[in-house]
Automatic annotation (TrEMBL):
Residues 720-737, 769-842, 901-911 have a biased composition (Basic and acidic residues). Residues 720-753, 769-917 are annotated as: Disordered. Keywords: ATP-binding, Cell membrane, Kinase, Membrane, Nucleotide biosynthesis, Nucleotide-binding, Transferase, Transmembrane, Transmembrane helix, Transport. The gene is tmk. It is a multi-pass membrane protein. It comes from Motilibacter peucedani. Its EC number is 2.7.4.9. Gene3D superfamilies: MFS general substrate transporter like domains, P-loop containing nucleotide triphosphate hydrolases. PANTHER family: MACROLIDE-EFFLUX PROTEIN, MAJOR FACILITATOR SUPERFAMILY (MFS) PROFILE DOMAIN-CONTAINING PROTEIN. It catalyses: dTMP + ATP = dTDP + ADP. This is Thymidylate kinase.
């Protein structure tokens, strides 16, 4: 069972009613813690300085290319994170097994030596190796330290101790930054080469760092009060591996611790996302380096605020609930940072994010200290350390990749508004959601107030009035009111007044008194008060009062209370404590024990102590009764003064159960005092409950009505808005439709016009084509006609020419025939004449000319006459000039065959011959 399970009130009520300053002073008042804390602060300062120096040193040693420098710096970071994953768990086991003080001393001594060697060696490889070694040593130191703190401070101061530790660890970072900047400036003033200027401050810072570790080692070595390690029987010492597995198993199997781990992982995922993406995110918002700086400042401011004030603000709130709630809120704040595309608002949410993260950080540390037993604490811190680093490295590495993969998205919820979400923003949103989910998961795993509504619990804690645990609410079991005080202080007077007032509120009121509230009691009263009883040993007196009381409580008071009545008693146990204890000088504790036994531990809900100086009381009694009074009234004044002081002491020891009233005031004023107090504490009577219920119901009905009306109004408004929106949309749609229709109509019209134009053009084209065709046709026909004409002409001409030729040939033939005939005739004649002469000569025949023979001279008829005439005419025409043309034609008609006019003439001679035949 964890320690918190044993006493949840401690966890829930931590720091309540105490201020932070008081807490811090209180925890610093513990000398061992104070010295350890101072040493740790110094070591932290050195550590931060060392980190800055190492990166600067690595950069300076690898000076050359930009890439190399960046790689060197990245290597330093990587080497600082890497060992946690490898030997982190082992270190936790060691912290749980070795002497914690000497583990811390050895780790710091080792770091002192290794860091000091870095500037001495001055080589990059050694810087890397040393970083690895130093970080490994830190892994042994941290769990030992964390596990020790809860052993040095009381549980109720653990939270303050953690706040101080975290303040020391993280508050030293800015101091280290300032110191480092100062050293760098100094180096610049001293001059030298660039590399000297870079190396010198880094070397000095490393020496300071080394020295800080030495101081821490020495201080811790002298803190002998640090418990070595949790006591464990020697034979149960498990192996290192077993211990490691046990540690992880412990985390896995202990629901609360698992919840804690989930919560812290959520917080770290969110933090890692912010660190890994801040630069891109700020750039995406266009806020530049200054924006980046402001955002980081905002984170640290928030962290500081959360660590300092978060737990204090909710002093009475369950720490488990606080852890989960702050992580869920941190997740939500991160989601808002991611979603708001405005650097100013983002910075505000970043402060909130930091505040919630800071609160959860302190709370988680406190819870581990409170809830994890000493035996496992080192391993739990170590396991947590490993997981946190894994998550941190994972998120640092993955977040930018994821952001790049997601890319930039633009949403346009409305026409006027475009919402740009960068990959960085979306990744941060995812991380925020993851953190919130882990917060919820943790809440489920570790809620320590099931049944108490979270919101009401939170509001109660904020108002400083935490809700009681369920099942512990006071049940309506009546109310026991007692009036106490010395003699004649006005108890009877007030009992009556109060009884009347309470009765008027609807309660059943039982007025009673001690001694003598019952019949038996009356007999006892007679014994104890009758002066005739004489001396009674104080013990007997005390026992008689106790006897009366036992019977009184058993037979009257309890039954009345159980009925729910308000019992108002004039005197009760306190009278015994004051009279028999303080007055008779019996041991008050003895008297109390008898009374407790007699009453079964029944304690009044309220005791009204009427305080009056003894003399005043005596005067009143004298005025009331006269005479000497009863056995006790007869006691001397100093007895009554002792009794009065006895009453007052009782009231002081338990102030919440008493109302001390100055009884010198008038009776009415005293009554009013009592009434006023009763109004706050007296339970409601059945009548009042009914009345209240009625009022509540009426109020509820009124509220319901109001809500209904409000809802109705809202519904109507929403409907109206919706209708308006729908109308607007409809109108817009109609407008769009109309525009579309118009566009369509115009397009159709255009298309129609275009079609018409095209048709027209086509018609014209066809017309043109037809006209052209006709024209061509006409031209062709004309051409044909002309060709035909020409052919005819040519034919005629040719015929003419042939005819002429024929005629010429004919004429020539005729002429030739004529000439031949004439020749023959002449020959004939000549022959005849020669014959005749011969004859004559011979016979002397007359020289008579023989007429030409008909067959020789007249073969031509009239037609041939006419033809002859015609040919003659053509010849004449030819002779007048056609001859040349004809010759030309004949030349033109000579084909490539090279046919000659003679051949042509020969060719044609057939036809001309035919024609002649
Ligand atoms: N506040 C008061 N101031 C003055 N006189 C008072 C006051 N209260 C009561 N008395 C008177 O003092 C006397 C004693 O009061 P009482 O109620 O009988 O005291 P008790 O019951 O304590 O003995 C009575 O005479 C009462 O009238
Ligand atoms: C109840 C009780 C009363 N007494 C004394 C105180 C009173 O003197 C006496 C009760 O007397 P009572 O007349 O009831 O008181 P008062 O005079 O104030 O009205 O008994 C004790 O000593 N021890 C007790 O436990």
């Amino acid at each position: 069972m964890s320690s918190a399970d044993q006493n949840p009130a401690i966890v829930s009520g931590l720091g309540a009613a105490r201020g932070l300053g008081g807490d811090v002073r209180g925890v610093l008042a513990i000398p061992t813690f104070r010295r350890l804390w101072a040493a740790l602060c110094f070591a932290s300062l050195g550590d931060w300085l060392g980190l800055l120096a190492l990166t600067a040193y690595a950069q300076a040693l690898s000076a050359g290319s930009y890439k190399q420098e960046n790689l060197a710096v990245a290597a330093v970071f990587l080497l600082r994170l890497a060992p946690a994953m490898v030997i982190g768990p082992l270190a936790g086991v060691v912290a749980d097994r070795l002497d914690r003080r000497w583990t811390m001393v050895a780790a710091n001594g080792f770091r002192f030596v290794v860091i000091a060697t870095i500037p001495v060696v001055g080589q990059l490889w050694w810087l890397f190796a040393a970083t690895l070694l130093v970080e490994s040593a830190s892994l042994f130191f941290i769990p030992a330290k964390e596990a020790t703190v809860p052993n040095l401070v009381p549980r109720e101061r653990l939270e303050a101790a953690n706040q101080l530790n975290l303040a020391g660890t993280y508050g030293s970072a800015p101091v280290a930054a300032v110191v480092f900047v100062g050293l760098s400036l100094l180096a610049r003033l001293l001059g030298g080469t660039d590399s000297e200027q870079a190396l010198r401050p880094a070397s000095v810072a490393l020496y300071v760092n080394s020295f800080a570790f030495l101081v821490a080692a020495v201080v811790i070595a002298r803190l002998r009060e640090i418990p070595p390690h949790p006591p464990r029987p020697a034979d149960e010492e498990p192996s290192a591996w077993r211990a490691l597995v046990d540690g992880w198993k412990y985390v896995g199997s202990t629901q609360v611790v698992r919840g804690l781990v989930f919560a812290m992982l959520g917080a770290f995922a969110a933090a890692g996302a912010v660190i890994g993406l801040a630069r891109t995110y700020v750039r995406d918002l266009g806020a530049g380096d200054a924006g980046y700086g402001v955002l980081f400042f905002a984170v640290f401011l928030g962290l500081a605020l959360g660590m300092a004030f978060g737990p204090r603000l909710l002093a009475g709130f369950s720490r488990r609930r606080m852890l989960c709630l702050s992580i869920v809120c941190a997740g939500i704040a991160l989601a808002f940072v991611a979603l708001v595309p405005n650097i100013v608002i983002a910075v505000m949410f970043t402060v909130l994010l930091g505040a919630f993260a800071g609160t959860s950080w302190v709370t988680a540390y406190t819870l581990i200290g409170l809830e994890v037993d000493d035996e496992h604490r080192g391993r739990v811190f170590a396991s947590l350390n490993v997981m946190l680093r894994v998550v941190l490295v994972g998120v640092l590495a993955l977040a930018p990749l994821l952001a790049a993969a997601i890319g930039v998205h633009r949403l346009t919820p409305t026409d006027e508004w475009t919402w740009t979400l960068s990959g960085a923003a979306i990744t941060m949103l995812l991380a925020g959601v993851l953190a919130a989910v882990l917060g919820v998961v943790s809440f489920r795993a570790m809620d320590d107030r099931p049944g108490v509504p979270l919101l009401a619990d939170l509001v109660g804690a904020l108002r400083g009035r935490p809700l009681p645990e369920p099942g512990r609410q006071p049940v309506a079991t009546g109310f026991f009111l007692v009036l106490e005080g010395g003699e004649a202080v006005g108890k009877s007077t007030q009992v009556q007044a109060v009884a009347e007032w309470v009765r008027a509120r609807g309660h059943e009121v039982v007025v009673t008194r001690e001694p003598g509230g019952t019949e038996v009691g009356a007999k006892v009263r007679a014994i104890v008060l009758d002066p005739g009883t004489g001396h009674l040993v104080p013990q007997a007196e005390a026992l008689l009062y106790a006897a009366d009381r036992a019977h009184h409580v058993g037979t009257l008071v309890r039954p009345a209370l159980e009925r729910g009545a308000v019992v108002i008693s004039d005197r009760y146990v306190d009278s015994s404590l004051a009279y028999q204890g303080a007055g008779r000088a019996l041991q008050v504790e003895d008297v109390a024990r008898i009374s407790r036994w007699a009453t079964g531990g029944l304690v009044p809900d309220l005791t009204v102590l009427l305080d009056l100086p003894a003399e005043v009381a005596a005067a009143r009694r004298q005025a009331r009764d006269g005479g000497a009074g009863d056995r006790l009234e007869a006691e001397p004044t100093d007895f009554h003064e002792r009794v009065r002081r006895g009453f007052l002491e009782l009231a002081t020891s338990a102030p919440h159960r008493y109302l001390v009233v100055d009884a010198t005031e008038p009776a009415e004023a005293v009554s009013e005092h009592i009434r006023q107090h009763l109004r706050a504490v007296l339970p409601l009577s059945a009548v009042e409950v009914a009345e209240q219920e009625r009022v509540r119901r009426e109020e509820a009905a009124r509220l319901a009505e109001e809500r209904r009306q409000h809802d109705e109004e809202r519904r109507l408004a929403v409907e109206a808005r919706r209708a308006e929106e729908a109308e607007r949309r409809r109108a817009e749609r109609e407008r769009n439709d109309a525009a579309m229709q118009e566009a369509l109509r115009q397009a159709a019209e255009q298309a129609r016009l275009d079609a018409l134009a095209a048709e027209q053009a086509e018609r014209e084209r066809l017309e043109r084509q037809r006209a052209e065709r006709e024209e061509l046709e006409r031209a062709r026909v004309e051409q044909e006609r002309l060709d035909a004409e020409r052919a005819e002409q040519e034919r005629l001409e040719r015929a003419e020419r042939e005819r002429v030729e024929l005629e010429r040939v004919e004429r020539e033939r005729a002429e030739r025939a004529e000439r031949e005939r004439a020749e023959r005739e002449r020959e004939e004649q000549h022959r005849a004449e020669s014959a005749a002469r011969d004859d004559g000569e011979s016979r002397g025949a007359p020289l008579l000319r023989t007429p030409p023979r008909l067959e020789d001279t007249a073969p031509l008829d009239d037609a041939s006459d006419a033809q002859t005439r015609e040919l003659t005419l053509v010849d004449e025409i030819f002779s007048m000039g056609f001859h040349t043309e004809r010759a030309d034609d004949e030349t033109a008609e000579e084909g490539p065959s090279g046919s000659t006019g003679d051949e042509r003439v020969d060719g044609d001679s057939d036809s001309s011959r035919g024609w002649l035949r």
